[in-house]
Specification:
Layout lengths: L1 H6 L7 E8 L5 E8 H10 L3 E4 L4 E4 L8 E8 L6 E7 L25 H4 L1 H7 L2
Parallel strand pairs: 1-6
Antiparallel strand pairs: 1-2, 3-4, 5-6
Length: 128
């Protein structure tokens, strides 16, 4: 467990972003922050325990609502600066009482992809 913790890149505030995903369906539930301490507690207690930046304290997901997240697995991204928590969510993950925090859809008309801007290296190579 210590080796895993030493590999992670926590930010200057000692925090790392954590994405919670339903382990069996792949549904993305929420994003929160974790400190080394809350990550260790999560591993020990097999449930998601986050760090609340607004309260500057530990946030045990579900303590007041009963909507706990049982921890199934933790993965790190390729840069080890973000972690993915595979959880079994009980009830709503979001404070707005929705299953997922990701319910607001960006208008399709607001999204435009300019391939030349998004992938300039591809286009600069083909022009040579």
């Amino acid at each position: 467990m210590t080796d895993f913790m030493e590999q992670l890149n926590f930010n200057a505030d000692g925090l790392i972003p954590a994405i919670a995903q339903q382990w069996d369906s792949g549904e993305v539930l929420m994003m929160a922050w974790m400190s080394k301490e809350t990550l260790l507690k999560s591993l020990e207690q097999k449930r998601a325990i986050y760090y609340s930046r607004s309260r500057q304290s530990e946030w045990r997901k579900g303590d007041s609502s009963g909507h706990i997240q049982t921890l199934k697995e933790i993965r790190a991204d390729c840069d080890t600066d973000c972690i993915l928590l595979l959880v079994d969510q009980v009830g709503a993950a979001c404070h707005e009482n929705t299953r997922s925090c990701f319910t607001k859809q960006i208008s399709k008309t607001a999204i435009t992809l300019n391939a030349e801007t998004a992938y300039p290296a591809l286009f600069s190579e083909s022009k040579k």
